[in-house]
Design brief:
By secondary structure, the chain is an alpha+beta fold. The chain has three domains: 2-209, Arp2/3 complex 21 kDa subunit ARPC3; 222-300, Helix Hairpins, CATH 1.10.287; 308-464, Histidine kinase-like ATPase, C-terminal domain (Heat Shock Protein 90, 2-Layer Sandwich), CATH 3.30.565.10. Helices cover 65% and strands 12% of the residues. The protein contains twelve helices and nine strands. The chain is rod-shaped. The termini are far apart. 27% of the residues are buried. Residues 416-429 have low confidence and may be disordered.
């Protein structure tokens, strides 16, 4: 009867310890890494075995009966890994030495070590078997209890006849029954821990999804904003374009109609003047259409770059011919300077280089009311990674209205200008800089801008040497 009392006390202690461990596990170890969880389990199982021995039944001064092997059974089901089970078995066995070193203690160490190796073998079957957890648990309980009884008989600390006839009939069925009961309770704890783990993983997944949705929301809001701006830009472009197209077309239509209805009343000078206006209006219209076609070709990747030798010394003469009249009409100074160390010839597309410079100079004259415009051609080196690269630079500087720093990137977009009212005051569609920027990239170069509002602008075209 004393055996049953002690076994029930052992079971009660193990259950209490399990509840405490379950509580601590939920609030601490659950969030730890897998190695920390394993180490915590090993220490808990060894401590549970030691507590069981502490409150075991002392048959005499040295022999103690208890359920110290029960944590080993549970570990076989919870962590079916051979190495861990061997450590737990040996560890529980060694705790027996804390109650005195004697023959019975040494047999206890050997007994639990053997049970650790037996459970290690069982763990291989537990991991590979497709049987239910209940079936695996019952097999583990039966094998460990039977092996424990066999070890007691073999090692002979207690006379075999006395153990078989007086002790075993009580302790063996009691051990089986209490082991099964404890295993069922631990199984409930295990299911609870699994549910907790699933909830934690679900929360982590929901947090990740929420964060991803938040990022997607920001991206969608940004795209919606871009679409709204694009729609606004297109509306402004259509308004500007209709104005730009109507102006030269109206001039052509009105003057043509006037000439048609004149009945030879117009003088030769008047006809020449009207013809010149019609020609300029047609050229403006053609330039506008060419800009739109160039932009479409660049965006479609169909604009061809023809690389040829470009004589640098010819560039100033060509640009002076084109812009000297505009400078005189607006009473602006127009200067072109060249560094002495410039190469005579560079390899690029002459037509596209001149187109970029014409666009930059046209803008400079358009937005400069007083002062002047200058073009300086020089060479420069810019650091690119570990090495420096040499460039030829065309600096177009003016004393015009300038551009606010926050608008520097904006003006290189198609149909964009620093101020939507600029097109009404100065004219233009906002295509020139966008086309020039794209052409510069196709030529292997780029355009930089330094400007302050009210202080003029400096556009620099960099082309590789």
């Amino acid at each position: 009867m004393e055996y049953l009392k002690i076994f029930f006390v052992n079971t009660a202690l193990l259950i209490t310890l399990s509840y405490l461990a379950n509580f601590i596990y939920k609030h601490t170890v659950t969030y730890a890494s897998e190695p920390v969880k394993k180490v915590s389990w090993v220490l808990l199982a060894i401590f549970a075995g030691w507590v069981s021995t502490l409150f075991g039944y002392r048959l005499d001064e040295h022999v103690i009966f208890d359920l110290r092997f029960v944590p080993l059974i549970i570990s076989t089901l919870a962590y079916p890994q051979p190495f861990i089970l061997i450590i737990i078995g040996v560890g529980i066995g060694l705790t027996r030495l804390t109650f005195g070193i004697n023959e019975a203690a040494m047999v206890g160490v050997v007994n639990l070590s053997i049970l650790g190796f037996v459970c290690a073998g069982l763990s291989l079957w537990v991991r590979r078997s497709s049987a239910s957890l209940l079936h695996k648990g019952l097999v583990a309980v039966l094998v460990v209890n039977a092996m424990n009884a066999l070890n007691i008989i073999v090692f002979g600390v207690i006379p075999a006849q006395k153990y078989i006839t007086q002790i075993m009939p009580v302790t063996f069925p009691a051990g089986l029954m209490l082991s099964v009961l404890f295993a069922l309770i631990i199984r409930d704890f295990h299911l609870d821990l699994m549910r907790t783990g699933q909830i934690i993983r679900a929360n982590d997944l929901l947090s990740e999804q929420t964060e991803e949705l938040h990022k997607n929301k920001i991206v969608l809001e940004e795209r919606a904003k871009q679409l709204m701006l694009a729609s606004q830009f297109k509306s402004e472009f259509l308004a500007n374009m209709s104005h730009e197209l109507r102006t030269p077309l109206n001039s052509i239509i009105n003057l043509s109609q006037l000439i048609e209805e004149s009945d030879a009343a117009l003088s030769v000078e008047e006809l020449r003047e009207y013809g010149a206006i019609i020609r300029r209006s047609g050229e403006d219209l053609l330039a506008l259409i060419n800009d739109i076609l160039d932009l479409s070709k660049v965006e479609a990747g169909k604009l061809d770059i023809v690389t040829q030798d470009l004589n640098v010394s010819e560039i100033p003469e060509l640009l002076l011919q084109q812009f000297s009249v505009a400078a005189k009409q607006k009473h602006l100074e127009f200067n072109i300077t060249m560094d002495e160390e410039l190469p005579e010839v560079i390899s690029s597309d002459p037509q596209r280089v001149q187109q970029i410079l014409r666009n930059l100079l046209s803008n400079a004259f358009k937005f400069t009311i007083a002062g002047g415009v200058s073009l300086n051609i020089r060479t420069a080196q810019r650091q690119e990674g570990p090495s420096a690269r040499k460039w030829i630079v065309f600096d177009v500087q003016d004393t015009g209205i300038g551009i606010a720093p926050e608008k520097h990137d904006l003006i290189f977009e198609a149909f964009e200008q620093a101020d939507t009212n600029i097109s009404r005051k100065f004219g233009g569609t906002g295509l020139g800089l966008s086309i020039s920027n794209d052409l510069a990239r196709l030529l292997g170069g780029f355009i930089t801008l330094h400007s302050q509002e009210g202080e003029g602008s400096l556009f620099s075209l960099y082309l590789p040497l």
